[in-house]
Amino acid sequence: MLRAARANPGRVAMPVRGRADKTGRMPEVEFTIRWADGSRFDGHSPSRAIERWVVEGGVYPRAELVRRVQIALREASERNREVCGFGGTEAAEASVAFTAAAAGDPDEPAVVQRLARGAQALRYPPPRRFGGHVDVVVIGGGHAGLSISWHLRSRSVDHVVLERGALAGAWRSQRWDAFRTLTPNWQCRLPGHPYPGQDPDGFMARDEIVEHLESYAESFNVPLCEGVAVNDVRADAGGGFIVTTGRGRLHCDQLVLAVGAHQHPRIPALAAGLAPAITQLTPATYRNPTSPPDGAVLVVGAGQSGVEIAEDLMRAGRDVHLSVGSATAHDLASLTADGLHRHGRLTASDGEVLRFAGPPADELDLRAAGIRTVVWATGFRADWSWVKLPLLDGDECPAHERGISTQVPGLYLLGLPWERARASSSFDEVAFDAEHIAGTIAERVYFPAGPYELRR
User: Which of 227, 217, 220 has the alpha carbon at shortest distance from 130?
Assistant: First the structure.
């Protein structure tokens, strides 16, 4: 098929692709502790062992925090010895420095204000500055963004994929350690990339999902730029769109928002009324059953994430309470028999006392129950404030037909529930929507004179 000619000065130059060099260094984790007097301590662990013992946002008595960090740094030294053949002094020096800084009242609370993995070399580094024009910009480098990139690549459509973090960033940083997919492995196929393993009826773990997406990206040389945060998108007066990033601006004729609908945890307003000594987490920040502070845990929400996190905690011997709400798709009888404390729908909080509507209707004194952590598994919400376009309908939802905006020509959405089916955001289903949208994009690229009819 012949492509329509167009004037196109300043086309985006993509960097040469390739894997980052493997240095053999252990991944470093930086952390910041905020003490009760307002002072802070900035430290680092030479390995990720610390993620097993503390969690970002965690509130710990000073003595407990010292114990946890010392254990983590000792494990980091042992891990370094396993990998490199020697323990090194970095972890020991970090432990000494932290213990000295932590001197004080052992019962005084301290907050893990920041827990972040050190910067890693990007596999798909962006150019130093963006500028110029590209036919299509895809925002989001998860399975939805990669799927439509494959279809655009197969149609020889010029495009770039922008990802604010690393490839599959949400799978890396917003899933707990024991997370597994809900769908069997054979359904985790992607366009041109079926499941390659030996266990089609199994369920991939978090790190396996990341590896699956990495191998997929490599299979078709995706034009991906990692580490590019998009600040906003808006219409260009001369036609098309302006995408503003931390590395400059891009102009494009068509724009795909492959960021999904589950962008931010939905936390109820009553969470603000909890006592400050309570650690508050979400499924995006919960990591494992050992990192929350000692004591019992309340999980609010009995959807898939809430029940799985409750099970994860109980397998580790934690005392767990679960606020179920009006209904749940899960049979909780076995968990209740194993010691789960079941409550109704959370309706109010007064510092350390929570009230639930039935069944069962009751009150829960967090201090008396020994609860020091609450996990808000209460769903997610979308944030379209950065899209400076008439994207939303009267219900504040994106107006579209199968991912094609009905209000903004040339704008598309991918990875939303119910684009074609209930599970449109899943690996298997997103491929159908990606193919449909890519076909429309290709028509508009190769036949820009139109007219365009909405593909149904």
Answer: 227
Segments in 220-353 forming alpha helices (H): 304-315, 333-337
Q: Looking at beta carbons, which pairs linking 96-100 to residues 24 or more positions away fall under 8 Å?
A: 97/43, 98/33, 98/41, 98/43, 98/66, 98/69, 98/70, 98/73, 99/66, 99/70
CA distance 274 to 192: 49
Distances 28 to 116, 235, 248, 370 between C-alpha atoms, Å: 9, 41, 30, 33
C-alpha span between 334 and 336 (Å, rounded): 5
pLDDT per position as a tens digit, 283-311: 999 999 999 999 999 999 999 899 999 99
Distance spanning both ends of the chain, measured CA to CA: 23
The count of C-alpha atoms lying within 13 angstroms of the C-alpha of 281, restricted to the half-sphere facing its C-beta, is: 32
Q: How far apart are CA 221 and CA 160, in angstroms?
A: 11
Q: Tell me the residue length of the chain.
A: 456
Give the number of other CB atoms < 10 A from CB of residue 150. 23
Q: Which amino acid is at 275?
A: A
* Strand-by-strand arrangement of the 296-300 sheet: 279-281, 371-376, 296-300, 320-323, 341-343
User: Between vectors from CA 51 to CA 376 and to CA 70, what angle results, nearest 5°?
Assistant: 125
CA distance 256 to 259: 9
Measured CA to CA, the distance from residue 228 to residue 261 in angstroms comes to: 20
pLDDT band at 381 (very low <50, low <70, confident <90, very high): confident
Q: How far apart are CA 262 and CA 268, in angstroms?
A: 16
Q: Tell me, what's the pLDDT at 34?
A: 96
Q: Which residues contact 376 (CB under 8 A, 6 or more apart)?
A: 265, 266, 267, 268, 271, 280, 281, 282, 300, 301
The two structure tokens encoding residue 419: 């684009």
| Reported pTM | 0.86
pLDDT above 80 for 1: no
Q: HEC states along 8-20?
A: CCCECCCCCCCCC
Q: Which single residue is written with the structure tokens 């990139």? A: 149
How far is residue 448 from each of residues 155, 411, 445, 451, measured CA to CA in Å? 15, 15, 6, 8
Task: Say yes or no to pLDDT of 427 above 90.
Answer: no
pLDDT tens digits, residue range 182-240? 889 898 889 999 988 899 999 999 999 999 999 999 999 999 999 999 999 999 999 99
Higher pLDDT, 261 or 236: 236
